[in-house]
Specification:
Blueprint: E1 6-7, E2 11-12, E3 19-20, E4 25-26, H1 32-45, H2 73-84, E5 87-92, E6 95-100, H3 103-112, E7 119-120, H4 124-129, H5 143-157, H6 159-164, H7 166-186, E8 192-193, H8 194-211, E9 217-220, E10 225-228, H9 229-244, H10 262-291, H11 299-306, H12 312-327, H13 329-343, H14 345-359, H15 373-385, E11 391-396, E12 401-403, E13 406-408, E14 413-417, H16 418-422, H17 465-482, E15 483-487, E16 509-514
Parallel strand pairs: 6-14
Antiparallel strand pairs: 1-4, 2-3, 5-6, 7-11, 8-16, 9-10, 11-14, 12-13, 15-16
Helix pairs in contact: 7-8, 7-17, 8-12, 9-10, 10-12, 13-15, 13-17
The structure holds protoporphyrin IX containing FE (HEM).
């Protein structure tokens, strides 16, 4: 039986960013593929008495890939949930993916059935870029994961570690504000690009927390060149994020792995080589410091003295993990919150009045946050409407299990649609509306970080939720305390996002006016 050519353009999702496949046209033929499909279906049903999952109808062999080509799979999944229910299965090439779209089934997967769903399914690009799962976020649940999650929480992200890194966060907020004051002074009629300023400050924080110091430039022996701070940012953050959303079409057809895809592999491997070279140079620089006896309260110094069983490469990956994770999601949330406030003068004023009442003439500090329920409501409503991780990195079902009353066979992949949970009409009134007031309801504890599913849950819950909330809330608070924000004309309609991520496609452009 001859099968039609198909142009694949599908996306899956790694760590807070995503994966996009711009695949070649592939011609597939042969009866053997039908047998593979038949086998997968029988296997899926298993011997359980539970009903099989609802299936989204698709095409032979490629399954639902063509239906997902519009680059926002989280939105397509959410639409399908309205017809097929909160849990259903799709086929992406040879793989069966079970998609979860409501808080109940997601919590079941993350907590009750976690033991059967505790491994990660990585794309080819991510396998290379994460040194085959050598990071907290991409590792399988097991001894390595438990050990490195303990390290990151003990030294950087847990509550005590956050106290030790307090001055770095204060500096970040202060610098951000100073840049905006300088912008207003130097070019008062020009819109400000908050992303440009805040992203650079987040990167500085990440370098200080992971390596002990921010850098201006570095000589990289393996590349035989000196890189500026901006170039370092590109190699460590921007390029890998782009690589992570790149998908090799063979990801969907593992039985075709023998077909070479040299262009793709070379691109990702070069990215990885440059990333590793720059990390090595940065670490070498700091090793000179540690060898001279100068100690800093950073992750590198901690790992060198406490994590004796880790290899040099593993340490470099764990340090890089902090850099890339610090630089993305907190920015996404803060930028969207400021976009929504700049668009909505009434709510912006309500926040300003709350801050004025609690802080008076003093600059808002982290200690004030528990007394600022409207500010935290703004943070959580932004996480809900613009969930920075729309789909959680794919998980893998390694033993037969059940979810939502359906049989889920070993070998399936699980896509957790956080965006779908946060847009569920059964749970949220008018979910499309940005309405922080919904979180002022007394059923929500003001300081609870998990009012929505944005940070995941269970044993793989986000390790950086506290840091993200402290940084984002304090920054939003200060920005509104010291300036009035208004979107530049035409900016309101700029709501598109980069591929399947929640990152604003065009940085927000806003006019700012200093308050007295
Ligand atoms: C608004 C900001 C953030 C959001 C919405 C967010 C969301 C998430 C989500 C959904 C997960 C996946 C949970 C899972 O696999 O089930 C995750 C994991 C993780 N996040 Fe975040 N994150 C944010 C900020 C951060 C920051 C700032 C850091 C570190 C600097 C961080 C570090 C991590 C780590 C290490 C994991 C892996 C946890 C594990 O696998 O056990 N996150 N995050």
């Amino acid at each position: 039986m001859a099968l039609t050519d198909a142009i694949l353009d599908f996306q899956a999702m790694p760590f807070g960013t995503a994966i996009a496949v711009g695949g070649p046209a592939i011609a597939l033929g042969g009866l053997s593929l039908w047998f593979i499909r038949g086998y997968v279906n029988d296997h899926r049903r298993g011997s359980s008495n539970l009903p099989p999952l609802p299936e989204i109808p698709g095409l032979p062999v490629i399954g639902n890939l063509l239906q997902l080509k519009e680059k926002k799979p989280h939105k397509t999944f959410t639409k399908w949930a309205e017809t097929y229910g909160p849990i259903y299965s799709i086929r992406t090439g040879a793989s069966t993916v079970v998609v979860l779209n409501s808080n109940d089934v997601v919590k079941e997967a993350m907590v009750t059935r976690f033991s059967a769903i505790s491994t990660r399914k990585l794309s080819k690009a991510l396998k290379i870029l994460t040194s085959d799962k050598s990071m907290v976020a991409t590792s399988d649940y097991g001894e390595f994961h438990k050990t490195v999650k303990r390290h990151i929480l003990t030294n950087i992200l847990g509550p005590n570690a956050q106290k030790r890194h307090r001055s770095n966060r204060d500096t970040l907020v202060e610098n951000t504000l100073q840049h905006i004051h300088a912008h207003v002074k130097n070019c008062p009629l020009q819109a400000v690009n908050l992303r440009h300023i805040f992203e650079s400050e987040l990167f500085g924080l990440a370098l200080k927390q992971s390596l002990g110091k921010d850098v201006e430039s570095i000589y990289v022996e393996e590349l035989r060149t000196t890189l500026s701070r901006e170039e370092i940012f590109k190699v460590l953050v921007n390029d890998p994020m782009e690589g992570a959303i790149d998908v090799d079409w063979r990801d969907f057809f593992p039985y075709l792995h023998w077909i070479p895809n040299k262009g793709f592999e070379m691109k990702i491997q070069q990215m990885d080589f440059r990333r590793e070279a720059v990390m090595n140079a940065l670490i070498q620089e700091q090793r000179k410091r540690t060898d001279s006896g100068e100690e800093l309260k950073c992750y590198l110094d901690y790992l060198l003295s406490e994590a004796k069983t880790l290899s040099g490469k593993q340490i470099a990956m764990l340090l890089w993990e902090v850099i890339i994770e610090t630089s993305d999601t907190t920015l996404v949330t803060t930028e969207w919150a400021m976009y929504e406030l700049a668009k909505d003068p009434k709510r912006q004023d309500r926040l300003y009045q709350e801050i004025k009442k609690v802080c008076g003439l003093d600059k808002i500090k982290e200690e004030n946050l528990p007394k600022l329920p409207y500010l935290t409501a703004i943070f959580h409503e932004t996480l809900r409407k613009h969930s920075p991780v729309p789909i959680i990195p794919m998980r893998y079902v390694h033993e037969n299990t059940q979810l939502g009353g359906y049989h889920v066979a070993a070998g399936s992949e699980i896509a957790i649609n956080i965006y779908g949970c946060n847009m569920d009409k059964k749970l949220w009134e008018n979910p499309e509306e940005w309405n922080p007031e919904r979180f002022l309801n007394e059923k929500y504890d003001a300081m609870d970080l998990h009012k929505t599913m944005a940070f995941g849950g269970g044993k793989r819950v986000c390790a950086g939720a506290l840091q993200a909330s402290l940084l984002s809330c304090t920054t939003i608070g200060r920005l509104v305390q010291e300036f009035e924000w208004r979107l530049k004309d035409g900016e309101e309609d700029n709501v598109d996002t980069v591929a399947l991520t929640a990152r604003k496609l065009h940085p927000m452009q806003a006019m700012v006016k200093p308050r007295n």
